[in-house]
Amino acid sequence: MEVVTHVLPEGADLPSAKASLAEHLDVRADRATSGTTTFYDTFDGRLHAAGLTLRHSGTELVLLDRETGATLASAAAPAAKRLFDRDLPEALRARLAPEMEMRALLPVAKVRTHRLPLAVLNGDAKTVVRLELTTADNGTRGRVTATAVRGYEAEIERVRATLAETLALPEATVPLVDEAIAAAGGDPAGTSSKLALTLDPDEPASLAAATVFGRLLEVIDLNLPGTLDDVDSEFLHDLRVAIRRTRSLQRQFKGVYPERLQHFRDEFKRLQAVTGDLRDLDVYLLDFPELRDSLPEKMRADLDPLRDVLEQRRVKALTATRRALRAQRTGDALAEWNEFVTSRRPSDRTVSDLASHRITRVYRKMVKMGRAIDDDSPAYDLHELRKVGKELRYLLEFFASLYPPEIVKPFVKTLKGLQDQLGRFQDREVQANALRDLAPAVKGHPFTLMAMGVLIERFMQEEIAARAEFADRFAVFASKAQRDVVKEHFG
Amino acid sequence: MSQVLATYNIKGGVGKTSAAVNLATLAAHGGDQTLLWDLDPQGASTYLFRVKPKIKGGGAKLVRGKTDADGQIKGTDTEGLDLLPADFSYRHMDLALDGAKTNRLDRVIKPLSEYRYVFLDCPPSISLVSENVFEAADALLVPIIPATLSSRTLDQLHEVLNSDAKVLGFFSMADRRKKLHRELMEELGREHDVLETVIPNSADVERMGAERAALVDFAPRSRAARAYADLWTEIRERL
User: Do A442 and A382 touch, CB atoms closer than 8 A?
Assistant: First the structure.
């Protein structure tokens, strides 16, 4: 049903707003209610990006279209501090699970609101448009929302004209949720862990690197509290990606830092190591439902003891990771690193010169490594190639703004095609090995071991299939056309 | 798929419309999208919802699929409750249904699957309309006045019933102070499967015509309104 929202005059409360509407429309008021409205989104604003608003008021969770304010789904639910897709009522889960994935919904704004539902009546005293007046205690202006009633769609035009022309109320352009989050000091779009950097090609490499390192430190800082509070698995993941990217750039730009870099490289290596077990266990647990479903139906329950083992191990890994991240040593290392990169003198080399040089070198290295791989090469060679591919991927991400997008984007796409294939190959091997390693932990459960055996067999088959794709993917990546592009734009 | 519930009795004036309007309103209050189709040419429930008793092109075109039911539906004052209005031409509905190879009421209802519940407020009598209703409905909600003659209602209904629809009888307009009512309810309750909730004979129910609203909306705490709420709970348990 069509919905229009207009903004009430500054300082208008429910009785005054109702009185001015009643001068022009035949309205009947329902009971006014007051309550707390809580808005939810993921840390990185996935609902915002998907054009959705999730709001809790009274005893109900309501999913709205951000643009129109139309209700998409609603269900009774308590106001929780955190909601995973599995915690949501069915009516909402179907719509939200694909957007949220592994992320948790968190309260992003809380507002005390006062609402007055009104019915616009025709000559038979029948409701032909529903109105709702809303005011909030957070200093934002109130709103009036008009919703069409089925079979009386023409009436909403009349109401819209009254609101816009007779009463001169401007149409609301910013959703209430955005105003509420902004009033609470947040960003309605959420907190991104993406790099999104714009660099100056003529800038000294050391200063540009400081910008990249600075942003990566920011991402680490942003994701640290959620990691320590164990809000959802994505905080740790984004934190680790930032650490890995930092290490990559440290390697690629090591020429810029003649002294003391090794200390920081060791520290970041340690940070990656102390968070590794927890991330591995997160991945196993995230994949668990899919693995379970991939088994023949009567074997599915057999796998459950494995989940118990994974969960127990995760509790231990979380404790260890928390201890390491909270340690004085970690705080000091991050602060000193920040100090180190921002206090560098400008280097002689420009960033575009150094970046182009590194991109060309790493690309050529990959081409050389890939060409040496044939059907008999050990898995190790493919893993090594993937590692170098990651370095190239990060370089292209850090320095994307230095090159024309029509060059960088297809380059990244070709690289990604190869990396995904190498990743599938390696993941299957890692998964098969991980299940083997876990076998002794479930030795009292023979049926669980059998189910794990079925999975290992499948992983090995998929590993073979992924390997078979390598030659085709690599051929595109190392083609003459791609080599020429690299030579022309990065050489 | 919607769940189709028809309020039906061969006799008129037994509280069919009152049951349909109040139960449908309760269903919508519970958060379920609900539609009430007023099949009675007199249009009593349409009147109660303050909607004009008008179907574009009349009932014949609607059941023959010439008029799109979707475009004829009206929202009511209750959120989540819509109405497919009555039309005076429904009095000739039998003609429109005669000779059809398929169940034409069913064909109108089926595409309206956005509704969790579809209530049919049926005209009294045994006719092609009621036969179509029996087939389309998942359950027949049959109000029974505890009077000697109406006790035959359930027997007669079972004689003509041509479908698997559940028959859920309940006492309507009952007066527990009357000895005859108490005795008949006891007797019928032994012989037939009748729901436990009893809708009392009440001036509040009669006020619906003056208020032009569902009793459960304008007097939700009245005895009769509470009885409808209990009845709705009991019906859902039986579905």
Answer: no
| Residue type (1 letter), A152 | Y
Instruction: Name the DSSP letter for residue A398.
Output: H
Nearest to A63 by CA among A103, A102, A97: A97
Give, in words, the CATH class of A193-349: mainly alpha
Are B39 and B122 in contact by the 8 Å Cβ rule? The answer is yes
Chain A contact set for B75 (CB, 8 A): 1, 127, 149-152
Nearest-by-Cβ selection for B74 from A1, A119, A151: A151
* Domain definitions of chain A by residue range: 3-183, 193-349, 351-491
Residue type, A117: P
Q: How far apart are CA B204 and CA B218, in angstroms?
A: 10
Please, which pLDDT band fits residue B151 given cuts at 50, 70 and 90? Answer: low
B63/B56 Cα distance (integer angstroms):
12
Report the alpha-carbon distance of residue B95 to residue B64 in Å, rounded. Answer: 11
Helix ranges (DSSP H) in chain B = 16-29, 44-48, 58-63, 93-97, 104-109, 128-136, 153-160, 179-191, 203-206, 208-211, 215-218, 223-238
What does the pLDDT look like over A208-260, one tens digit per residue? 999 999 999 999 999 999 999 999 999 999 999 999 999 999 999 988 887 78
Q: Is B31 on the interface with A (CB under 8 A)?
A: yes
From CA A491, how far away is CA A488, in angstroms rounded?
6
Instruction: Compute the residue count for chain A.
Output: 491
A126 touches chain B (CB under 8 A): yes
Helices and strands, number each (H, E), in chain B: 12, 8
A87's tokens = 């915690």
Q: CATH number of the domain at A351-491, please? A: 1.40.20.10
DSSP strand pairing (A52-57 vs B74-75): unpaired
CA dist A60 and A63 (Å) reads: 10
d(CA A71, CA A81): 23
B174 DSSP 8-state letter = E
β-strand pairing of A71-76 with B166-174: unpaired
Two domains, one topology: A3-183 and A351-491 = no
Closest CA to A391 of A217, A279, A247: A247
The pair of three-digit structure tokens given for residue A41, joined into one six-digit string:
């989104």
Question: Does B82 contact A150 at a Cβ distance shorter than 8 Å?
Answer: yes
Average pLDDT over chain A, rounded to an integer: 93
Backbone angles phi, psi at A201, to 5 degrees: -60, -30
Report the gap between the CA of A21 and the closest CA in chain B (Å). Answer: 19
- The topology under which CATH files domain A3-183 is Hypothetical Protein Pfu-838710-001 (2.40.320)
Write out pLDDT tens, residues A34-70.
Answer: 999 999 999 999 999 999 999 998 899 999 998 887 8
Say yes or no: A86 contacts chain B, CB-CB below 8 A. Answer: no
Is the model's pTM score more than 0.90?
Answer: no
Residue A75 with chain B: CB contacts under 8 Å: 31
Q: Provide CB contacts within 8 A for B220, sequence distance 6+.
A: none
Question: What is the dihedral angle through the alpha carbons of A443, A444, A450, A456, rounded to the nearest 10 degrees?
Answer: -30
Euclidean distance between CA atoms B187 and B148, whole angstroms: 11
Q: Residues A358, A361, A362, A366: what is their CA dihedral angle, to the nearest 10 degrees?
A: 170
Residue B117, by phi and psi: left (phi above 0), alpha (psi -120 to 50) or beta?
beta
Can you say whether the dihedral through the CA atoms of B35, B41, B47, B50 is positive or negative?
A: positive
Residue A169 has phi, psi (to 5 degrees) of: -90, 125
DSSP state letter for B127: S
Domains along chain B? 3-238 (3.40.50.300)
A296 touches chain B (CB under 8 A): no
Contact of B116 with B104, CB cutoff 8 Å: no
